[in-house]
């Protein structure tokens, strides 16, 4: 158990809908990262937050957004869903936003868009 | 941009065989390098890491050496077990923001 929790574990929804994925980092970790794992794109970095502020952006679509709240949990919002958004979404946390700190991964949320 | 290339799988070995999974990288500067493992139905776990050239990361019998001259970080284990069956990802830490760039993953299947 990494100490990072993600909810829900599975999500099935229809095209055009909007969903919210939730992540709680390990106690004491200030940085949260979101990654997408799909069969065609592999594991890709989406976005990073550090202590409530956006720190880095990767291949995140404009239909996707995220935020980190004062209690440091984070939410990833996916809207106008398409079939191609079906993937495993991982959250990871680390102590800080710079320097080499281990990223601890949650178990992931499997999103299926039908 | 920064990238990681790792050998295609699946790799199928018999128990107690020697394992090598190749990984090479392209990056500006000298990034930290990692191997992560993903067991079926689970998230990623850090297996080992190396933060500078010639560093050797090791854990649970797995080893990898950061080779700057060949830009490589190959994963090795002397004697694999059935319980090592999983997907292995090579990754580098890119830039000042610590985002991880992953290779495509290599499925390892160990047969008894």
Would you write up a description of this structure?
The complex is a heterodimer of chains A (114) and B (112). Chain A has 114 residues and is mainly β. Chain A contains no helices and 11 strands. In chain A, 0% of the residues lie in helices and 53% in strands. In chain A, the strands form 2 sheets. In chain A, strands 2, 4, 5, 6, 9, 10 and 11 form a 7-stranded mixed beta sheet that branches. In chain A, strands 1-3-8-7 form a 4-stranded antiparallel beta sheet, with no helix packed on it. Chain B is built from no helices and 12 strands. In chain B, the strands form 3 sheets. In chain B, strands 2, 5, 6, 10, 11 and 12 form a 6-stranded mixed beta sheet that branches. Chain B has a 4-stranded antiparallel beta sheet with strand order 3-9-8-7, with no helix packed on it. A two-stranded antiparallel ribbon of chain B has the order 1-4. The termini of chain B are far apart. At the A-B interface, strand 4, strand 5, strand 9 and strand 10 of A face strand 6 and strand 11 of B.
Keywords:
heterodimer, A: about 110 residues, mainly beta, seven-stranded mixed sheet, four-stranded antiparallel sheet, 11 strands, about 0% helix, about 55% strand, B: about 110 residues, six-stranded mixed sheet, 12 strands, globular
Element pattern of chain A in H and E: EEEEEEEEEEE
Major β-sheet annotation of chain A: 7 strands, mixed
Report low-confidence residues of chain B grouped into runs of 5 or more: none
Q: Major sheet of chain B: size, sense and barrel closure?
A: 6 strands, mixed
Based on helices, strands and strand pairing, what is the structural class of chain A? mainly beta
**What is the oligomer described by this structure?**
heterodimer
- Arithmetic mean of pLDDT of chain A: 93
Computed Rg of chain A = 13 Å
- Uncertain residue segments of chain A: none
Q: H/E order of the elements of chain B?
A: EEEEEEEEEEEE
Indicate the percent of residues in helices of chain B: under 10%
How far apart are the termini of chain A?
Answer: 31 Å
Distance between the termini of chain B: 41 Å
Q: Give the overall form of chain B.
A: globular
């Amino acid at each position: 158990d990494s100490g990072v929790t993600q909810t829900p574990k599975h999500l099935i929804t229809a095209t055009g809908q909007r969903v919210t994925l939730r992540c709680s980092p390990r106690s004491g970790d200030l940085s949260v990262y979101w990654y997408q794992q799909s069969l065609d794109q592999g594991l890709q970095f989406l976005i990073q937050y550090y202590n409530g502020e956006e720190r880095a952006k990767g291949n995140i679509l404009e239909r996707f957004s995220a935020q980190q709240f004062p209690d440091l949990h984070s939410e990833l919002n996916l809207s106008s869903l398409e079939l191609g958004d079906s993937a495993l979404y991982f959250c990871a946390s680390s102590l800080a936003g710079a320097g080499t700190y281990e990223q601890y991964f949650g178990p992931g949320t499997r999103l299926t868009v039908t | 941009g920064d990238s990681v290339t790792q050998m295609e799988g699946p790799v199928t070995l018999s128990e107690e065989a020697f394992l090598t999974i190749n990984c090479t990288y392209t990056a500006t500067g000298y990034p930290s390098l990692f191997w992560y493992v993903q067991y079926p139905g689970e998230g990623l776990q850090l297996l080992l890491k190396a933060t500078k050239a010639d560093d050797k990361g090791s854990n649970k019998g797995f080893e990898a050496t950061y080779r700057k001259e060949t830009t490589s970080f190959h994963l090795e284990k002397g004697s694999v077990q059935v319980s090592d069956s999983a997907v292995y990802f090579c990754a580098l830490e890119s830039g000042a923001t610590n985002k991880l760039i992953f290779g495509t993953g290599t499925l390892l299947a160990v047969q008894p």
